Amino acid sequence: MSPVRLLAPLLLVLALAAPASADPPPLPAGTDLDYQLGGPADVPDRVGIVVRDRTEDPVPGRYNVCYVNGFQTQPDARRSWLQQRHLLLADRDGLVVDEAWGEWLLDIRTPARRERLAGIVGRWVAGCARDGFDAVELDNLDSFSRSRGLIEPRHARAFARLLVDRAHRVGLAAGQKNWATWDGTAAGFDFAVAEECGRYDECGAYVDSYGDQVLVVEYRARDFARTCAAHADLLPVVLRDRDVTPDGVRRWC
């Protein structure tokens, strides 16, 4: 068989495995945001960007962001994660938990574990793309700060690059969540989701990294008012109740 004929199948395999070449869709300008992690609700006409959990359906005709807990476990997934306990962070006292939310931390300290975990999270991200979402929000990038010193920032950066790559391969924009002092564009993130950046004076840091590609969620009325005054001309800002319930607080600048 000629070298050319031998090479042709290899080139086909490489082409199929290559990341998507098209740029992921950016956040639309001049529209409002709704943050619906606690369950779907009606979407007002003024809202063009909707964030929902990966288990929910996207909203037709809107820019849809799929929520994925990329660095920690969901509380309702404990049983399935215990079957892969070796991928969860632990010390002599047991599994390391984010006490605020009851979520175990993923063990991203080694390249091998990062690859295994990226395969799992990557399947969720691919599911978002199949369901018709435009982008993915990868939550808890800063889980290292709750790891009892076991996870280092460099581990988080390395894992972030893997997850962003998985998102881009299926045509989704990737959103940084948390760790405002790090410019996630270095890992390929396309936008940021900034919770309470007005409260903690972090909105400017996200704008420095992402310009107008930032989604802002505030949970206190006074922080919302301050954020609207400072950033509503550039960024979409929504006030939500902390449990982001379907019937809870929703206000826009």
Sum this structure up briefly.
This protein is of the alpha/beta class and 253 residues long. It has helices spanning 3-17, 78-82, 111-131, 153-169, 203-210, 221-231, and strands at residues 32-36, 47-53, 63-68, 90-91, 94-95, 97-98, 103-104, 135-138, 173-177, 191-195, 214-218, 237-240, 250-252.
Please give a structural write-up.
It is a single chain. With 253 residues, the protein is α/β, with parallel strands linked by helices. 30% of the residues lie in helices and 21% in strands. The chain contains 6 helices and 13 strands. The protein has a 9-stranded mixed beta sheet. Strands 4-5 form a two-stranded antiparallel ribbon. Helix 3 runs parallel beside helix 4.
Task: Give a topology summary.
Elements: H1 3-17, E1 32-36, E2 47-53, E3 63-68, H2 78-82, E4 90-91, E5 94-95, E6 97-98, E7 103-104, H3 111-131, E8 135-138, H4 153-169, E9 173-177, E10 191-195, H5 203-210, E11 214-218, H6 221-231, E12 237-240, E13 250-252
Parallel strand pairs: 1-2, 2-3, 3-8, 8-9, 9-10, 10-11, 11-12
Antiparallel strand pairs: 4-5, 6-7, 12-13
Helix pairs in contact: 3-4
